[in-house]
Each structure stands twice: as structure tokens, then as C-alpha cells.
């Protein structure tokens, strides 16, 4: 579904990704594990087309998407929940969820159907729907960011450090939501970044480890963390 | 004190009305500047030139309409038409040819580029309209005066400045608030203002939003200029004084604040006209005294909110 091929990224002249290759298969769940600063966020931003590549390619559904502008990723079915949730604070939760679908110009009925599916998966969002995003707690915000990514992420959802800063109870609830997501949307590929490999063992089928911008372990070889 | 009021009451009333009229114009310019900075993150010094060119263009269109034999009331739509024309032509031209190249540059460089643009437009304006004062006051004489009661006094004041200008400012304020919150395009603009990258990931084409917002901001500046035309004679330098006042309003109100910009424009407009009336030597510094006083206490501006985005 989504692939990085030998991607090289420099930020301010310094290499941040060196020859990174990573495959996110259709319906698969992949973990990208690494310390802070290892290049996890940069890898996701490269997939989203949010920064220029010095080398390599990004493939979406087998087609070269390196030159496809970032804002077309949503149309290709790739949803993204950046680190630190990044919700639109003055909007309500419902407006945050609806925005990407409205921007795509989806039919009202289709938007309603997707919103219902997200409310079924994450029932807490239905009760928060009319609250302003700025007033949410960290855990609530993460759930909204997940829902917002799902709104357009019909093929793949990229989650950047979703567990960071969550209290253990909330982290468990979030992991349960991801498991339910896998069960109810089996075709959606999930890519989750994390600094602690233990958290994801029950969820993922492939793990990549990234260190100083390089993939040091990949595939089933590291599946058990 | 009571004695001071009986002596100076009419003067104070006049100063208030002057202040409200100039606040309406400052607001039109400041709100566009604010919107453009919020979305593009470029502080556009040349925003004042768009005001000036809008003003001169309004005079030209007004004269043309009169010479073409159109009735006097046509001078009002002529102002609006001139402003739209200036915004729709210069807005996309500046954004496409110039600003688009500097979005990823350092703020200092952006400031230098828009300052250079300001200088170029200032000279272009002198080239086209010359340096002699231009005056086109048909709309003011057309609309006559109203008697504004102030305490025990009645102050006759021209309808254009005391009714029309504030009405246009209020319509702009309310219209903009409704547009930004209730329409999809408005929410898209707000989303880019809040977080460009997250908005892009949601499928929003930020470049398109930049073009749209800049053109809209240019139209607001030009409209402010066009509306100012009937109230004063146009001379080189009006662009500079306008941009400086708008900067003061935006900095005092806090970035991204529309309603706040309206209140601050009133504060600064009235503060300045009171100074003009009673302490003329303070006229130039009053806006900055207000700005500095506010920023010392609230560095994020009167209505600005400190950004908190951490978990």
C-alpha cells in the first residue's frame, strides 16, 4: 500500500534519513521503533510528502507518489495523525473530524456514514462531539486525532507516537481501539511509531527499528520486539 | 471638571466622531493585514501601498464616472468597484510573482522583500498619479450631514463618515466572522492559520489558500483606501502612515484577533483624534503609547492567547 524506497532526507543540511526503505502492506500493521530524534517523525512526514526528498521514492499503491503534492495524500486514502495531536483548537470535535472529508468534497451521505463508523469505533468521540478541541485532555485529543485520520484514511493511517504522554489506563484504551480498528477495518494499513517497543507487541505484525536515520532491523526478524 | 465639560463638550464630541470614522478605516486595513499574516506568516509591509493605490484608483474611477455623465450617487459604487479591481489585479500578481518565492525564507528576508515592494509601489503610484494632492469628495457632499446629539449639544457631522464608514466596518467584521466560522472555505482558512502542516495532511492545498487569502486581504486594504478617498486629499505617504497604524492595531490586539482588532482600532482611532483635538503635539505618538502600554502588560496583545499545544 505504502512504501519508502531508499529514502534520503536532509533537514538544514544534516542527514536525517539515510537510505530508509520500509513497506506498509495492505491491511498490515507496522511499528517503527526508535529513540527521540532517530527519524521516526521525518519518515512519516516523508511518506506524507511534507518535506522534500534528496533521494529515493515514495510509492502509494505501487505508483510513484514522490512528486504528488502533500495535500493529495488524503485523496489517495492516507490519513495522518501527527505527533502532539495538532487538532484545530477553535473548532469543535465534530468540525475537526468533518474537515478532511468536507475538503475532499465527499457526499453528505458518505461523510455521515464515515462519521457513524468512527463514533462506533470510538464511542467517546460521540459524547465529545460538540466540545471545543482546545479544551480536551491529552488522551481525548489523541482519540480525536485518530478519528480525524480515519476520516480519510481508508487505505492507510499513519500514527506518530500516539502513546506518548498517555497514562497507562488511557494507553490501554487506545491500544484496544487500535485492535478494534484492525478488526472492523481489515483493509486499512496501520503504521505506528513508538519509542518503547513493548507497548506494541500485541498489535503489530512487522517491526522496523530506526537508529540515527537508518533502519537497523526490519521484518518478521524483529516482530517480537 | 464639570466646567471643563461645558466648555469642551462639543470639541470632545467632535473628537469622538473623528475617532470613530478613522477607526473604521484603520480596522479595514488592519483586519486584512492580520488575516494575511495569520495564513501566510508573512508580514506584508506593502499592505499600506494597496491602501494607497485603492484610494487613488477610487478617485480616478470616481472622476471617470462623473466625466462619463453618471449621476452623483454612482460615486459610491465607483469606490467599491475601484477597490475590487485593485485587489483582484494586484493581489494575485503580488502573491504569485513575489510572495510565493519567499514563503520558506527567513522572516527578515520576507520583511525586506515586502518593504522593497512597498517602495516600488510607492514610486509607481507617484508615477501614475503624481505628487499633487488629489481630492474627490463627491460621496461626502452627496450624503450631507446629520445632527449627532452629544450631551446637551448637537454636533452636525457628515453622514458619510459617521454612518457609512462605521456601517461598512461593522458589516465587514460580522461578515468576516460568519464567513470564517460558518463556511467551509472559512474553516479551511482558519485551519491553515492554526496549523499549516496538519491542514495539508487533511487534504488542504495551502498554496491555494494563500492566494485566496492574500487577494481577499488586498481587497480589504484597497477598500479601506477607496473609502478614505472622499474624506481627505490624497498625497504621497498615505500608504506609509496607514501601514504603521495598522501594525500598531494588529500588535496591540494580538495576532489572529478579528473582533479584538475592531476594538483596538476604536481605541487607537479615538485616542489619536482626542490627541489631535486637545494635545496636537502628541498626535503621532499616541497610537504607540497605547501599543507599548498594552504590550508591557500583555506581550501577546490585548486579546491574543498564548499558544498551548502540548499534550
Provide the CATH top-level class of the domain at 2-89 and 157-222 in chain A.
Alpha Beta
Q: What integer is the average pLDDT of chain B? A: 90
Number of helices of chain A: 6
Assembly form of the protein:
heterodimer
User: Could you estimate the helical fraction of the residues of chain B in percent?
Assistant: over 70%
Share of residues in strands of chain A: 25-35%
Structural class of chain A: alpha/beta
Give the SSE order of chain A as H and E letters.
Answer: EEEHEEEHHHHEHEEE
The CATH architecture of the domain at 2-89 and 157-222 in chain A is: 3-Layer(aba) Sandwich
Poorly predicted sequence stretches spanning 5 or more consecutive residues of chain A = 221-225
Can you offer a commentary on this structure?
- The complex is a heterodimer of chains A (225) and B (311).
- Chain A is α/β, with parallel strands linked by helices and 225 residues long.
- Chain A has a domain at 2-89 and 157-222: Rossmann fold (3-Layer(aba) Sandwich).
- Chain A is 32% helix and 26% strand.
- Chain A contains six helices and ten strands.
- In chain A, the strands form two sheets. A six-stranded mixed sheet of chain A has the order 6-7-8-3-9-10, with helices on both faces.
- In chain A, strand 1 (2-11) and strand 2 form a beta hairpin.
- Chain B has a domain at 32-158 and 206-234.
- Chain B contains twelve helices and two strands.
- Chain B has helices at 2-40, 47-67, 75-97, 107-129, 138-143, 159-182, 184-194, 196-201, 206-228, 238-253, 258-278, 286-297, and strands at 145-150, 153-158.
- Chain B has a two-stranded antiparallel ribbon.
- In chain B, helix 1 (2-40) packs antiparallel against helix 9, helix 1 packs antiparallel against helix 11 (258-278) and helix 3 (75-97) runs antiparallel to helix 9.
- The N and C termini of chain B lie far apart (55 Å).
- The interface between A and B is medium-sized, with 32 and 20 residues.
Amino acid at each position: 500500500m505504502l512504501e519508502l524506497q531508499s529514502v534520503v532526507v536532509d533537514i538544514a543540511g544534516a542527514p536525517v534519513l539515510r537510505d530508509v526503505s520500509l513497506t506498509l502492506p495492505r491491511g498490515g500493521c507496522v511499528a517503527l521503533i526508535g529513540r527521540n530524534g532517530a527519524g521516526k517523525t521525518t519518515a512519516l512526514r516523508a511518506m506524507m510528502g511534507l518535506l522534500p526528498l534528496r533521494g529515493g521514492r515514495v510509492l502509494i499503491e505501487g505508483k510513484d507518489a514522490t512528486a504528488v503534492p502533500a495535500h493529495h495524500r488524503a485523496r489517495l486514502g492516507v490519513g495522518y495523525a501527527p505527533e502532539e495531536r495538532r487538532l484545530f483548537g477553535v473548532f469543535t470535535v465534530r468540525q475537526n473530524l468533518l474537515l478532511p472529508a468536507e475538503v475532499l468534497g465527499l457526499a453528505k451521505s458518505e461523510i455521515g456514514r464515515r462519521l457513524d463508523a468512527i463514533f462506533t469505533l470510538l464511542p467517546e468521540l460521540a459524547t465529545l462531539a460538540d466540545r471545543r478541541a482546545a479544551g480536551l485532555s491529552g488522551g481525548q485529543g489523541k482519540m480525536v486525532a485518530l478519528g480525524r485520520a480515519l476520516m480519510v484514511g481508508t487505505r492507510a493511517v499513519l500514527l506518530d507516537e500516539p502513546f506518548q504522554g498517555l497514562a497507562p489506563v488511557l494507553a490501554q484504551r487506545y491500544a484496544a481501539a487500535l485492535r478494534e480498528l484492525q478488526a472492523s477495518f481489515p483493509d486499512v494499513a496501520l503504521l505506528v511509531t513508538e519509542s518503547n517497543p513493548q507497548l506494541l507487541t500485541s498489535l503489530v505484525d512487522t517491526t522496523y527499528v530506526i537508529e540515527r536515520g537508518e533502519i537497523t532491523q526490519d521484518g518478521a526478524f524483529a516482530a517480537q520486539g | 471638571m464639570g466646567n471643563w465639560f461645558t466648555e469642551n463638550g462639543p470639541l470632545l464630541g467632535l473628537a469622538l466622531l473623528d475617532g470613530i470614522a478613522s477607526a473604521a478605516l484603520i480596522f479595514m486595513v488592519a483586519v486584512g493585514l492580520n488575516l494575511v499574516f495569520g495564513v501566510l506568516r508573512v508580514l506584508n509591509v506593502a499592505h499600506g501601498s494597496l491602501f494607497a493605490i485603492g484610494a487613488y484608483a477610487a478617485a480616478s474611477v470616481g472622476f471617470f464616472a462623473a466625466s462619463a455623465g453618471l449621476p452623483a450617487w454612482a460615486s459610491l459604487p465607483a469606490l467599491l468597484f475601484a477597490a475590487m479591481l485593485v485587489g483582484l489585479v494586484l493581489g494575485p500578481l503580488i502573491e504569485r510573482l513575489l510572495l510565493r518565492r519567499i514563503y520558506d525564507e527567513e522572516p527578515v528576508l520576507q520583511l525586506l522583500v515586502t518593504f522593497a515592494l512597498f517602495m516600488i509601489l510607492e514610486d509607481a503610484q507617484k508615477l501614475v498619479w503624481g505628487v499633487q494632492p488629489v481630492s474627490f469628495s463627491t460621496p461626502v457632499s452627496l450624503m450631507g450631514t446629520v445632527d449627532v446629539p452629544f450631551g446637551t449639544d448637537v454636533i452636525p457631522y457628515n453622514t458619510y463618515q459617521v454612518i457609512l464608514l462605521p456601517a461598512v466596518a461593522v458589516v465587514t467584521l460580522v461578515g468576516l466572522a460568519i464567513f470564517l466560522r460558518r463556511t467551509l472555505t472559512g474553516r479551511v482558512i482558519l485551519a491553515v492559520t492554526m496549523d499549516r502542516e496538519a491542514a495539508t495532511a487533511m487534504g488542504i492545498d495551502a498554496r491555494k489558500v494563500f492566494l485566496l487569502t492574500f487577494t481577499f486581504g488586498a481587497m480589504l486594504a484597497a477598500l479601506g483606501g477607496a473609502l478614505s478617498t472622499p474624506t481627505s486629499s490624497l498625497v504621497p505617504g498615505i500608504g506609509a502612515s496607514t501601514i504603521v497604524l495598522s501594525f500598531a492595531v494588529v500588535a496591540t490586539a494580538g495576532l489572529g484577533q478579528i473582533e479584538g482588532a475592531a476594538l483596538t482600532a476604536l481605541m487607537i482611532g479615538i485616542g489619536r483624534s482626542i490627541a489631535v483635538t486637545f494635545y496636537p503635539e502628541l498626535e503621532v505618538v499616541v497610537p504607540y503609547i497605547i501599543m507599548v502600554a498594552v504590550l508591557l502588560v500583555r506581550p501577546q496583545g490585548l486579546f491574543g492567547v498564548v499558544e498551548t499545544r502540548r499534550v
